[in-house]
Each structure stands twice: as C-alpha cells, then as structure tokens.
Amino acid sequence: MAKNVALVTGGMGGLGTAICKALADDGWRVAVNCLPDFPPAVEWVAKTKADGYNFFVAEADVTNYDQCGAMVKKIEAEFGQIDCLVNNAGITRDAVFRKMTKDQWDAVLSTNLDSVFNVTSPILPLMAERGFGRVINISSVNGVKGQFGQANYSAAKAGLLGVTKALAQEVAKKGVTVNAVAPGYVGTEMVLAIKEDVREQILATVPVGRFGKPEEIADLCVFLASDKAGYITGATININGGLHMV
C-alpha cells in the first residue's frame, strides 16, 4: 500500500506530536490539525521543521462540523487523499460529578467525542469508496475503567470505544479498519507537570513502575495504520503498563 496522507487531530500536543513524527518517519505525509489561529502553531511548525519534518497544517475547530468538512476538502485538494485518520483531539475539565458544571460536561463531550463524528464523517465515505483506510481513535484507560472526578472524560472516552466497534462493522468489507488505542499515564508535559508527590502516588499504581512514552503510543498507531494490521478491526488495544488489565 502506497502511503498517502495521515490526518492527526490535536496533533500539536505532546502525544499528537509523537504520533505525527512517527507516521512521517514511516513514510506518511502528515496533515496536522489544530484550532484556527492557534497561538503555539507558529513555534510548533518552526520546531518540527528544525527537526526535519514538513507537516501540512490543517486548521479547524473539531467541535464544529462545517469547519471539519471544509478542512477535509482542503487537505484532499491541496495535499492529497486521506488514507489514515487519527482522532486524537482531547481536553480535560475535571471535577467530582456533584460539582461538575454543564459547561465542563459539554466542553469535554464536544471536544473528545462529538469531534470524532465531525472529522470522521466526511472522511470515512472516501476511504470506503477507494477500498482502503485506517481510522485510529485515541481513547484512554479511564474510558475503559472509569476514573473518580472524570465522569465527563470517562464518558467521552468510553463512547469512543462504542463508536469504534460500530464503525468497524460498517466498513469492514470496504477495506477500512477502525480501532481504538487506550493509553494509560503517558509522560507528556501535562502529566510531568503534576506535583511530584501526586506523580509518585500515580506511579505506585502502575505495575511496570513508570509512565508510558509518547513514542510507544505513536508506534502502536503506526502499526495499526500499516498493512500488517489489516486483520485487526473493532479492537481496543490497551497500552497502560498493567494499570488496568482486561
């Protein structure tokens, strides 16, 4: 299979950057989604170019259906056909449920779950028509097991697992696979910014005794995007250092 374009939503975060680089290293041409007029974008592009990468920046608010459709049309017209989609965009707005606001609930469900519909909807029919495609949804260990203080996040990430299984059945005969990756705690800047005593408490719950590396999640995505993973679809692959075994 000739590698064409891979689109990564939320591609400028810690995990997103690792996924973008790993796909590019494997021969994909990578379109990186970010918000319109995203302040860190200029610096991110300069840094990745200095590292030898030339990504196509694809602006769109993933909570906005029309913007996502326009983004896909722009990528296909100016950069190439999208053969791989990594739905990675996500945010947290943590609070115990009795104190959680409607805005906190809506923001997380919109960004983490509705976005998957908004971005995948214009892409999946194109993949099915061409007879090949890879959709990889980034879920979370907390979508598998739930997490105190994250009812919104856990609900959204669990929802991704249901979407993955349903879509996989719909396009299996079209040469398109749909899978979910459920990472545990990964050593991104966001996690490493947690207070040291809290980090130590988290690490004590992880059997392998360390945080995951963004590159480990990224390498799994590269495998799922490859021809070698053509018989894997509708799967949730847990990569969490033994934090939750299913």
Task: Write a concise synopsis of the structure shown.
With 246 residues, the chain is α/β, with parallel strands linked by helices. The protein is built from nine helices and seven strands; from the N terminus they run βαβαβαβαβααβαααβ. The longest helix is centred in the middle third of the chain and has 29 residues, at 102-130.
Describe this structure in words.
The chain has 246 residues and is α/β, with parallel strands linked by helices. It has one domain: Rossmann fold, CATH 3.40.50. 47% of the residues lie in helices and 15% in strands. It has helices at 14-25, 41-50, 65-78, 102-130, 141-145, 151-171, 189-192, 196-203, 214-225, and strands spanning 5-8, 29-34, 56-59, 82-87, 133-138, 176-183, 236-239. The protein is globular and about 50 Å long. The mean pLDDT is 96.
Distance between the termini: 33 Å
What's the CATH first level? Alpha Beta
Helix-strand topology string = EHEHEHEHEHHEHHHE
Tell me the β content: 15-25%
CATH architecture: 3-Layer(aba) Sandwich
Q: Supply the CATH superfamily name.
A: NAD(P)-binding Rossmann-like Domain
Radius of gyration: 17 Å
Keywords:
alpha/beta; 246 residues; seven-stranded parallel sheet; single chain; globular; Rossmann fold
